[in-house]
Amino acid sequence: MIGHLLRTARSSSVFRHAYTMLSKDDTIIGTTDAGVRAPGGPPPDTLVKPWSRKRYFGTLLFNIAAFTLPALYATLSKLWVADIDASFVVTTDAYTYIGVVAEVINEGLPRAAWNIIADKSNRSLADRHGLSYTLILFQSALGLILSVCFLGAARQFADAFVPSVVREASLTYVRISAFSALSSAIETAVASATRSLDQPDVPLLISSIKFVVNIVLDMIVISRFHVRGIHPSVNTQAATQLACNMTASLAGLAYFVSITARQRRRIKPVDGHQVPREARPSFGSLSTLARPGFFTFTESAVRNALYLWLVSGIVAMGSDYATAWGVFSTIRWGLIMVPVQSLEATSLAFVGHAWGSWRRSIGSDERRPHATKSQLLRKSSTLSQPGACIARLRAAQTSPARP
After folding, report:
1. The pTM is what?
2. Which residue from 67, 296, 318, 345 lies 20 to 30 Å from 59 (Cα-Cα)?
3. Rounded to an integer, what distance in angstroms lies between the CA atom of residue 168 and that of residue 91?
4. What is the dihedral of CA 187, 190, 191, 196, to 10 degrees?
5. What's the pLDDT tens digit per position in 353-391?
6. Where are the transmembrane segments (predicted)?
7. What is the domain partition of the chain in residue ranges?
Protein backbone atom coordinates (compact mmCIF):
# COMPACT_ATOMS: atom_id res chain seq x y z
CA MET A 1 0.00 0.00 0.00
CA ILE A 2 2.90 2.32 0.73
CA GLY A 3 4.21 1.39 -2.71
CA HIS A 4 0.92 2.59 -4.16
CA LEU A 5 1.41 5.97 -2.50
CA LEU A 6 5.00 6.15 -3.72
CA ARG A 7 3.98 5.45 -7.31
CA THR A 8 1.42 8.24 -7.20
CA ALA A 9 3.76 10.81 -5.68
CA ARG A 10 4.68 13.85 -7.75
CA SER A 11 7.02 16.67 -7.03
CA SER A 12 5.06 19.86 -7.31
CA SER A 13 4.23 23.35 -6.15
CA VAL A 14 6.13 26.08 -4.40
CA PHE A 15 6.87 26.18 -0.69
CA ARG A 16 4.10 28.09 1.06
CA HIS A 17 5.09 30.23 4.00
CA ALA A 18 1.60 30.91 5.28
CA TYR A 19 -1.60 29.05 5.91
CA THR A 20 -2.80 27.83 2.51
CA MET A 21 -6.13 29.28 1.47
CA LEU A 22 -8.16 29.30 -1.69
CA SER A 23 -7.83 32.44 -3.75
CA LYS A 24 -10.80 34.74 -3.91
CA ASP A 25 -11.45 33.70 -7.51
CA ASP A 26 -11.82 30.03 -6.61
CA THR A 27 -15.09 28.43 -5.64
CA ILE A 28 -15.21 27.41 -2.01
CA ILE A 29 -16.69 23.97 -1.76
CA GLY A 30 -17.95 22.32 1.40
CA THR A 31 -17.27 18.61 1.52
CA THR A 32 -18.91 15.67 3.19
CA ASP A 33 -18.49 11.92 3.08
CA ALA A 34 -21.24 11.77 0.51
CA GLY A 35 -19.52 14.04 -1.94
CA VAL A 36 -19.56 17.78 -2.69
CA ARG A 37 -22.26 20.37 -2.43
CA ALA A 38 -22.41 23.79 -4.01
CA PRO A 39 -22.38 26.95 -1.91
CA GLY A 40 -25.85 27.75 -0.64
CA GLY A 41 -27.06 24.17 -0.99
CA PRO A 42 -28.47 22.27 1.97
CA PRO A 43 -26.03 19.95 3.73
CA PRO A 44 -26.77 16.30 2.89
CA ASP A 45 -26.36 15.23 6.53
CA THR A 46 -28.98 17.55 8.04
CA LEU A 47 -30.65 14.77 9.99
CA VAL A 48 -27.67 13.12 11.64
CA LYS A 49 -28.26 10.81 14.58
CA PRO A 50 -26.67 11.84 17.91
CA TRP A 51 -24.38 8.79 17.92
CA SER A 52 -23.19 9.35 14.36
CA ARG A 53 -19.46 9.83 13.80
CA LYS A 54 -20.31 13.32 12.47
CA ARG A 55 -21.45 14.32 15.96
CA TYR A 56 -19.23 14.97 18.96
CA PHE A 57 -20.81 12.27 21.10
CA GLY A 58 -20.67 9.64 18.37
CA THR A 59 -17.04 10.44 17.58
CA LEU A 60 -16.21 10.27 21.29
CA LEU A 61 -17.66 6.76 21.52
CA PHE A 62 -15.55 5.60 18.57
CA ASN A 63 -12.42 7.11 20.12
CA ILE A 64 -13.03 5.62 23.57
CA ALA A 65 -13.29 2.17 22.02
CA ALA A 66 -10.20 2.78 19.85
CA PHE A 67 -8.04 3.85 22.83
CA THR A 68 -9.37 1.27 25.29
CA LEU A 69 -8.37 -1.85 23.34
CA PRO A 70 -4.59 -1.14 23.12
CA ALA A 71 -4.53 -0.10 26.77
CA LEU A 72 -6.22 -3.34 27.79
CA TYR A 73 -3.77 -5.42 25.77
CA ALA A 74 -0.76 -3.61 27.28
CA THR A 75 -1.92 -4.70 30.74
CA LEU A 76 -2.63 -8.30 29.72
CA SER A 77 0.71 -8.70 27.93
CA LYS A 78 2.64 -7.69 31.06
CA LEU A 79 0.73 -10.27 33.09
CA TRP A 80 1.53 -12.99 30.56
CA VAL A 81 5.22 -12.07 30.43
CA ALA A 82 5.28 -12.14 34.24
CA ASP A 83 4.02 -15.74 34.09
CA ILE A 84 6.92 -16.64 31.78
CA ASP A 85 9.66 -14.93 33.80
CA ALA A 86 8.97 -12.03 36.16
CA SER A 87 12.49 -10.67 35.69
CA PHE A 88 11.71 -9.94 32.03
CA VAL A 89 8.74 -7.68 32.74
CA VAL A 90 11.16 -4.77 32.74
CA THR A 91 12.37 -5.85 29.29
CA THR A 92 8.94 -5.20 27.81
CA ASP A 93 9.29 -1.56 28.81
CA ALA A 94 11.88 -1.21 26.04
CA TYR A 95 8.93 -1.38 23.64
CA THR A 96 7.34 1.52 25.52
CA TYR A 97 10.49 3.64 25.38
CA ILE A 98 10.89 3.00 21.66
CA GLY A 99 7.34 4.30 21.38
CA VAL A 100 8.30 7.42 23.34
CA VAL A 101 11.03 8.23 20.82
CA ALA A 102 8.62 7.49 17.96
CA GLU A 103 6.14 9.85 19.62
CA VAL A 104 8.40 12.76 18.68
CA ILE A 105 7.77 12.21 14.96
CA ASN A 106 4.17 11.22 15.65
CA GLU A 107 3.50 14.61 17.24
CA GLY A 108 5.01 16.61 14.39
CA LEU A 109 3.04 16.58 11.14
CA PRO A 110 0.18 14.43 12.52
CA ARG A 111 -0.65 17.23 14.96
CA ALA A 112 -0.92 19.64 12.05
CA ALA A 113 -3.71 17.48 10.64
CA TRP A 114 -6.19 18.88 13.14
CA ASN A 115 -6.19 22.40 11.67
CA ILE A 116 -5.14 21.58 8.09
CA ILE A 117 -6.88 18.35 7.07
CA ALA A 118 -9.83 19.02 9.41
CA ASP A 119 -10.52 22.31 7.59
CA LYS A 120 -13.52 21.21 5.54
CA SER A 121 -14.78 24.75 4.98
CA ASN A 122 -11.92 25.88 2.73
CA ARG A 123 -10.51 22.67 1.25
CA SER A 124 -12.03 20.30 -1.24
CA LEU A 125 -12.34 16.62 -0.44
CA ALA A 126 -9.63 15.71 -2.95
CA ASP A 127 -7.30 18.32 -1.42
CA ARG A 128 -7.82 16.92 2.07
CA HIS A 129 -7.22 13.39 0.82
CA GLY A 130 -4.01 14.51 -0.90
CA LEU A 131 -2.80 16.05 2.35
CA SER A 132 -3.65 12.80 4.14
CA TYR A 133 -1.70 10.69 1.64
CA THR A 134 1.28 13.04 1.97
CA LEU A 135 1.15 12.79 5.75
CA ILE A 136 1.03 8.99 5.71
CA LEU A 137 3.81 8.65 3.14
CA PHE A 138 6.16 11.06 4.91
CA GLN A 139 5.53 9.59 8.35
CA SER A 140 6.08 6.06 7.03
CA ALA A 141 9.47 7.11 5.66
CA LEU A 142 10.42 8.69 9.00
CA GLY A 143 9.25 5.60 10.88
CA LEU A 144 11.35 3.33 8.67
CA ILE A 145 14.45 5.48 9.19
CA LEU A 146 13.88 5.51 12.94
CA SER A 147 13.42 1.71 13.02
CA VAL A 148 16.69 1.14 11.19
CA CYS A 149 18.44 3.44 13.68
CA PHE A 150 17.02 1.48 16.61
CA LEU A 151 18.10 -1.78 14.99
CA GLY A 152 21.66 -0.56 14.55
CA ALA A 153 21.89 0.97 18.02
CA ALA A 154 20.13 -1.82 19.94
CA ARG A 155 23.00 -2.30 22.38
CA GLN A 156 23.30 1.42 23.17
CA PHE A 157 19.53 1.62 23.64
CA ALA A 158 19.58 -1.36 26.01
CA ASP A 159 22.45 0.20 27.98
CA ALA A 160 20.29 3.26 28.64
CA PHE A 161 16.84 1.73 29.20
CA VAL A 162 17.27 -1.91 30.28
CA PRO A 163 18.66 -2.87 33.72
CA SER A 164 22.03 -4.61 33.69
CA VAL A 165 20.57 -7.83 35.15
CA VAL A 166 18.68 -8.68 31.93
CA ARG A 167 20.48 -6.40 29.47
CA GLU A 168 22.28 -9.04 27.38
CA ALA A 169 19.21 -11.27 27.23
CA SER A 170 17.08 -8.31 26.12
CA LEU A 171 19.06 -7.35 23.00
CA THR A 172 16.97 -9.59 20.74
CA TYR A 173 13.79 -8.11 22.19
CA VAL A 174 15.03 -4.59 21.45
CA ARG A 175 15.97 -5.52 17.87
CA ILE A 176 12.56 -7.07 17.22
CA SER A 177 10.73 -4.14 18.79
CA ALA A 178 12.77 -1.63 16.76
CA PHE A 179 10.33 -1.85 13.87
CA SER A 180 7.44 -0.93 16.13
CA ALA A 181 8.48 2.66 15.32
CA LEU A 182 7.43 2.03 11.71
CA SER A 183 4.08 0.48 12.62
CA SER A 184 3.46 3.28 15.13
CA ALA A 185 4.23 5.97 12.53
CA ILE A 186 1.82 4.44 10.00
CA GLU A 187 -0.91 3.91 12.59
CA THR A 188 -0.65 7.43 14.04
CA ALA A 189 -0.62 9.09 10.61
CA VAL A 190 -3.67 7.12 9.45
CA ALA A 191 -5.49 7.76 12.74
CA SER A 192 -4.81 11.52 12.71
CA ALA A 193 -5.84 11.89 9.08
CA THR A 194 -9.02 9.84 9.40
CA ARG A 195 -10.15 11.51 12.62
CA SER A 196 -9.67 14.87 10.92
CA LEU A 197 -11.83 13.58 8.06
CA ASP A 198 -14.60 12.51 10.49
CA GLN A 199 -13.80 8.82 10.00
CA PRO A 200 -13.03 7.56 13.53
CA ASP A 201 -14.09 4.08 12.46
CA VAL A 202 -10.68 3.63 10.78
CA PRO A 203 -8.65 3.95 14.03
CA LEU A 204 -11.22 1.71 15.69
CA LEU A 205 -10.68 -0.89 12.96
CA ILE A 206 -6.90 -0.73 13.51
CA SER A 207 -7.27 -1.12 17.28
CA SER A 208 -9.78 -3.95 16.91
CA ILE A 209 -7.60 -5.96 14.53
CA LYS A 210 -4.54 -5.38 16.68
CA PHE A 211 -6.34 -6.36 19.87
CA VAL A 212 -8.12 -9.45 18.56
CA VAL A 213 -5.14 -10.92 16.70
CA ASN A 214 -2.76 -10.14 19.58
CA ILE A 215 -5.04 -11.78 22.12
CA VAL A 216 -5.57 -14.89 19.98
CA LEU A 217 -1.86 -15.36 19.24
CA ASP A 218 -0.81 -14.64 22.81
CA MET A 219 -3.37 -17.10 24.14
CA ILE A 220 -1.95 -19.73 21.78
CA VAL A 221 1.73 -18.92 22.22
CA ILE A 222 2.64 -17.20 25.51
CA SER A 223 -0.30 -17.28 27.93
CA ARG A 224 -0.57 -19.83 30.73
CA PHE A 225 -3.05 -21.67 28.49
CA HIS A 226 -0.64 -21.87 25.52
CA VAL A 227 -0.52 -24.86 23.18
CA ARG A 228 1.58 -27.77 24.38
CA GLY A 229 4.97 -28.14 22.76
CA ILE A 230 5.54 -24.38 22.51
CA HIS A 231 8.17 -22.86 24.77
CA PRO A 232 7.12 -19.21 25.20
CA SER A 233 9.65 -16.44 25.74
CA VAL A 234 9.64 -12.67 25.92
CA ASN A 235 11.04 -12.58 22.36
CA THR A 236 8.03 -14.56 21.16
CA GLN A 237 5.78 -11.92 22.66
CA ALA A 238 7.75 -9.17 20.88
CA ALA A 239 7.52 -10.96 17.52
CA THR A 240 3.77 -11.58 17.74
CA GLN A 241 3.16 -8.01 18.89
CA LEU A 242 5.16 -6.56 16.00
CA ALA A 243 3.42 -8.80 13.46
CA CYS A 244 -0.01 -7.83 14.77
CA ASN A 245 0.82 -4.11 14.86
CA MET A 246 2.09 -4.11 11.28
CA THR A 247 -0.90 -6.13 10.07
CA ALA A 248 -3.37 -3.81 11.78
CA SER A 249 -1.64 -0.64 10.53
CA LEU A 250 -1.51 -1.82 6.92
CA ALA A 251 -5.11 -3.06 7.09
CA GLY A 252 -6.22 0.36 8.34
CA LEU A 253 -4.23 2.05 5.58
CA ALA A 254 -5.79 -0.19 2.92
CA TYR A 255 -9.27 0.50 4.29
CA PHE A 256 -8.63 4.25 4.33
CA VAL A 257 -7.37 4.30 0.73
CA SER A 258 -10.38 2.28 -0.44
CA ILE A 259 -13.01 4.46 1.24
CA THR A 260 -11.38 7.72 0.12
CA ALA A 261 -11.26 6.47 -3.47
CA ARG A 262 -14.93 5.52 -3.23
CA GLN A 263 -15.83 8.95 -1.84
CA ARG A 264 -14.10 10.77 -4.69
CA ARG A 265 -15.86 8.63 -7.28
CA ARG A 266 -19.17 9.93 -5.91
CA ILE A 267 -18.19 13.57 -6.44
CA LYS A 268 -20.45 15.25 -9.00
CA PRO A 269 -19.87 18.42 -11.04
CA VAL A 270 -20.88 21.69 -9.36
CA ASP A 271 -22.70 24.23 -11.56
CA GLY A 272 -21.41 22.47 -14.65
CA HIS A 273 -17.79 22.65 -13.49
CA GLN A 274 -15.84 19.45 -12.96
CA VAL A 275 -14.56 19.17 -9.39
CA PRO A 276 -11.02 17.74 -9.02
CA ARG A 277 -11.06 14.10 -7.98
CA GLU A 278 -7.38 13.23 -7.98
CA ALA A 279 -5.59 13.04 -4.65
CA ARG A 280 -1.84 12.52 -4.67
CA PRO A 281 1.03 13.12 -2.27
CA SER A 282 3.02 16.22 -3.18
CA PHE A 283 5.76 18.47 -1.89
CA GLY A 284 3.24 21.31 -1.82
CA SER A 285 1.07 19.36 0.63
CA LEU A 286 4.15 18.53 2.68
CA SER A 287 5.09 22.20 2.96
CA THR A 288 1.52 23.03 4.01
CA LEU A 289 1.75 20.53 6.86
CA ALA A 290 5.36 21.32 7.76
CA ARG A 291 4.94 24.86 9.09
CA PRO A 292 2.45 24.13 11.90
CA GLY A 293 4.00 20.68 12.41
CA PHE A 294 7.42 22.16 13.17
CA PHE A 295 6.23 23.74 16.42
CA THR A 296 4.54 20.58 17.73
CA PHE A 297 7.59 18.53 16.71
CA THR A 298 9.93 20.82 18.65
CA GLU A 299 7.73 20.80 21.75
CA SER A 300 7.44 17.00 21.65
CA ALA A 301 11.20 16.54 21.18
CA VAL A 302 12.01 18.64 24.26
CA ARG A 303 9.30 17.06 26.41
CA ASN A 304 10.13 13.46 25.53
CA ALA A 305 13.88 14.06 25.84
CA LEU A 306 13.33 15.19 29.44
CA TYR A 307 11.09 12.17 30.07
CA LEU A 308 13.66 9.69 28.69
CA TRP A 309 16.38 11.37 30.76
CA LEU A 310 14.22 10.75 33.84
CA VAL A 311 13.62 7.12 32.82
CA SER A 312 17.31 6.41 32.24
CA GLY A 313 18.00 7.63 35.77
CA ILE A 314 15.33 5.31 37.19
CA VAL A 315 16.71 2.34 35.20
CA ALA A 316 20.19 3.06 36.56
CA MET A 317 18.80 2.66 40.10
CA GLY A 318 18.13 -1.04 39.51
CA SER A 319 15.68 -3.59 38.17
CA ASP A 320 13.15 -3.21 40.98
CA TYR A 321 12.80 0.54 40.45
CA ALA A 322 12.61 0.12 36.67
CA THR A 323 9.92 -2.57 36.99
CA ALA A 324 7.89 -0.45 39.40
CA TRP A 325 8.08 2.54 37.06
CA GLY A 326 7.00 0.40 34.11
CA VAL A 327 3.98 -0.94 36.00
CA PHE A 328 3.04 2.57 37.09
CA SER A 329 3.27 3.83 33.49
CA THR A 330 1.13 0.95 32.25
CA ILE A 331 -1.57 1.71 34.81
CA ARG A 332 -1.42 5.44 34.09
CA TRP A 333 -1.57 5.20 30.29
CA GLY A 334 -3.72 2.08 30.26
CA LEU A 335 -6.47 3.10 32.65
CA ILE A 336 -6.38 6.77 33.55
CA MET A 337 -5.43 8.36 30.23
CA VAL A 338 -7.94 6.57 27.97
CA PRO A 339 -10.80 9.05 28.58
CA VAL A 340 -8.34 11.96 28.39
CA GLN A 341 -6.94 10.80 25.04
CA SER A 342 -10.45 10.16 23.70
CA LEU A 343 -11.68 13.61 24.67
CA GLU A 344 -8.54 15.20 23.25
CA ALA A 345 -8.82 13.50 19.85
CA THR A 346 -12.54 14.27 19.59
CA SER A 347 -12.18 17.90 20.63
CA LEU A 348 -9.25 18.52 18.30
CA ALA A 349 -11.25 17.30 15.31
CA PHE A 350 -14.19 19.60 16.02
CA VAL A 351 -11.93 22.53 16.90
CA GLY A 352 -10.30 22.01 13.49
CA HIS A 353 -13.70 22.18 11.82
CA ALA A 354 -14.55 25.36 13.73
CA TRP A 355 -11.18 26.88 12.82
CA GLY A 356 -11.85 26.28 9.12
CA SER A 357 -15.31 27.80 9.42
CA TRP A 358 -13.94 30.93 11.15
CA ARG A 359 -11.04 31.18 8.71
CA ARG A 360 -13.46 31.16 5.82
CA SER A 361 -15.75 33.74 7.42
CA ILE A 362 -13.01 36.39 7.55
CA GLY A 363 -12.13 35.98 3.88
CA SER A 364 -9.30 34.41 1.90
CA ASP A 365 -7.45 37.71 1.38
CA GLU A 366 -6.48 37.97 5.04
CA ARG A 367 -3.16 36.12 5.24
CA ARG A 368 -2.51 36.71 8.96
CA PRO A 369 -5.91 36.69 10.64
CA HIS A 370 -6.47 37.78 14.22
CA ALA A 371 -9.53 36.86 16.24
CA THR A 372 -11.14 39.37 18.57
CA LYS A 373 -11.96 38.52 22.17
CA SER A 374 -15.65 38.38 21.37
CA GLN A 375 -15.01 35.91 18.53
CA LEU A 376 -12.92 33.69 20.81
CA LEU A 377 -15.59 33.73 23.51
CA ARG A 378 -18.30 32.99 20.95
CA LYS A 379 -16.32 30.07 19.51
CA SER A 380 -15.46 28.66 22.94
CA SER A 381 -19.10 28.74 24.01
CA THR A 382 -20.04 27.05 20.75
CA LEU A 383 -17.47 24.27 21.21
CA SER A 384 -18.72 23.62 24.73
CA GLN A 385 -22.07 22.63 23.19
CA PRO A 386 -21.36 20.07 20.43
CA GLY A 387 -24.85 20.19 18.99
CA ALA A 388 -24.79 23.98 18.69
CA CYS A 389 -21.26 23.79 17.30
CA ILE A 390 -22.35 21.60 14.42
CA ALA A 391 -25.42 23.72 13.75
CA ARG A 392 -23.31 26.88 13.51
CA LEU A 393 -20.74 25.17 11.35
CA ARG A 394 -23.50 24.18 8.95
CA ALA A 395 -24.83 27.71 8.93
CA ALA A 396 -21.36 29.06 8.20
CA GLN A 397 -20.86 26.57 5.38
CA THR A 398 -24.25 27.36 3.87
CA SER A 399 -23.61 31.11 3.74
CA PRO A 400 -21.29 32.45 1.02
CA ALA A 401 -17.74 33.46 1.96
CA ARG A 402 -17.13 37.14 2.60
CA PRO A 403 -15.04 38.75 -0.15
Report:
1. 0.75
2. 296
3. 11
4. 160
5. 777 777 777 766 666 777 777 766 766 655 554 444 444
6. 56-76, 130-153, 204-226, 238-258, 306-328
7. 66-265+278-359+371-394
